[in-house]
Design a protein that fits this description.
This protein has helices at 3-35, 38-71, 78-112, 118-146. It is mainly alpha-helical. It is elongated and about 60 Å long.
Length: 147
Amino acid sequence: MDVWDEQEALAGHVGRWGIASVGLGWVLAAVGHRRGDVRLRAFGVQNAGWGLVDLAIVALVRRLTLRQLAGLDDPHGPQAQRRRRRKLLGQLVLNAGLDVGYVWYGVRRYRRAAAGSSAQGHAAAVVLQGAFLFAADSSHALRLQRA
């Protein structure tokens, strides 16, 4: 498995999730606003915000990757592949730990918020986004580790 291809696959997954989060988030925010449902509106806004951040990160990672590839004599050689695989695996493990923290924080915040409040909507979105990112980061980390 080429580590650069795996990194691009991860960027593709997160990018598609980001687009869906922005689009559906704004739709849910608009529906919540129209219905006067502050929890649904907050859920939508929070998801859209996370989606925008996901898209920004994907764009930055792709730009940095192009720069890295240009600086390597043989990016597909065994030494460059091992080095990048080790670094990417470390980043994914760190990210997966952060993702667990997002889910924990969201669950805690949801339980402490008033029923039906915007705080519950924001917290539920944090749980959803953290869970997706954990699944993406950990599945790609496992694929790298097995390769």
